[in-house]
Amino acid sequence: MSLAQQEKEVLEVQTSGEFEREPVPQSQWKDWKSFLGMYAGEHAAGTEFIIGPLFLTTGVSAFDLIIGLLIGNFLAVLSWRFLTAEIGTKFRYTLYFHLEKICGTRLVTIYNLANGVLFCFLAGSMITVSATAVGIPFNMEMPRLTDTMPTSFTWVVIVLCIGAVISLIAARGYSTVAKAANFMSPFIVLAFLVCGGVALVQLDVNSFSDFWNIWGEGGDPFPGQIKYTFWHVVLWSWFTNAAMHIGMSDLSVFRYAKNARAGWTTAGGIYVGHYIAWISAALLYAVYLKSPEAAVFINNGEAPPVAPGPLAYNAIGFFGIIAVILAGWTTANPTIYRAGLAFQAIIPKTSTFWVTIIAGGLATIAGLFPAFAMKLLGFVAFYGFILAPIGAIIVFDYYFGKKAGITSFYAEKTGSKFNQAVFWAWLISFGVFYVLSLRFEIFLSFLTLPAWIFCGCLFLIFSKLQKRSRE
C-alpha cells in the first residue's frame, strides 16, 4: 500500500470512521471473531426473553416448536452466508449507499426513513425489556400483554435512563458496538443456560418426555394470540430477521468482514439465541404459568403478563436482572447503530454520531410504549415483510442483472435520482401481498418470500422496459 493511500485511509477514519459513502478499506477489515461476538450478543439478547414466552401463548406443540425452530434458523443462516455476506464483501458498501447507486437519492430517502423508523421501534422494544428488569428493585408495576401506554412515572424515568446509555454506546460506532457485544454476550449466554436449567428443575423435568410434554400436542392460543403450527414456526424464525439477511440490512455489517465465510458466524448467535434462548425463556414462562398469580389471569380469561425481568429474577435472582438489562442493550445497540446509518444517508452532512443519537432518542420514546414488545411476534413479521423486498433489488441486480441485460447501479450510471423500476416493483409487491394477507387473513411470514421473489422479478422486467425506453 502506498504512503498516499495510507494517509487517505487515516484521514477517512479521523473524519468519519464509518465509511458511509465508500468501500471499507482493507486496513479496517475484521476477522470472524468480531462477527461471532456481535451476533451472539445481538441474538442471545432481549428479544429472546419476550419471544420464547410468546411462543407459549400461541399454543404451539413440542414438535412444531423444537423442529420448526431447528429448520427455520438454518434457513436464516444460509440467507446471511450466501446472500448478505457474499454481496457485502464484494462491494463493501452500507445498505443505504448501495441502494443509492441503484435507486437514486430521492427514492432511497423514502426507504431509509422507513427503515430507520422501524429499527427504532425494534430497539425501543428492547429498551422495554431492560426496563422490566431495572424496575424490580423499585417494585414497579410490570406491563401486560394488552398494555400500550406507559404504566407509571417510574417506568418513564427508567426507560429514559436506559435509552440514554444505549444511545451513547451505539453513537460511538461499529467498533464500540462490537466490543460491547463481545464483552456482554458470554455473560448473557450463560444466563440463558442457567435460567433454562433452573426452570427445568422448577418444572420437575426428569426425562426428555417430561421436557417434551411441557408443550405436548399444543393447545388453544391465549386471548388475542393466533394459533401457531409447524410452518408458522419455520417461516417466522426464518424471517424474524428478514430485513437483515434477505433485506440486505447487514451489508452494513459484513462490509467489514475479510471474506464471505464470516456469514457462518451468524449460526453462533442464531442457535444460541433463537434456539436455546427462546426455549429457555419459554421454560421460564411455563414456570410462571403454574403460579397463583398467573392462575388469576387465566381464570379471568386474560393472558398472563410477559415481563422478562421478573421471569429471570424468579429463576436466578439478581443475576437474572443483570442478564436481562444487558440482553436488552446488546440488541438495541446494533439496531440503533443501523438506524443511525439509515438517517445519516438521508442527511449525509450530519455526523454519524449525532444522527445515531437522534435514532436513540426515537427508540427511547418507542420504548415508553410496551405495545412494541408485547406484540413483538406480529411486529417483527410486519417489519420484515415491509423491508425484505427491497433487498431483492440488490440481490437480483447482482446475480441476474447482467443476464437480464439491465444496467447495474442504474442511478449512478444514468444520474437518475428516482428509479421508477425499483419504486413500482417494491410498491406492487408490497401492495399485492399485503392485500392478500388482509383479505384472506394470511400470516405475513407466509408471504414474505413470495413478495421478495415477486419484487425481484418485477424489478428485472421494469428495468428492461426502462432501458428500452431510453434507447
From TrEMBL:
Domain of life: Bacteria
Keywords: Membrane, Transmembrane, Transmembrane helix
Annotated InterPro entries: CodB
Transmembrane segments: 62-83, 116-140, 152-171, 183-203, 228-248, 269-291, 311-332, 353-373, 379-400, 421-436, 442-462
Protein name: Purine-cytosine permease
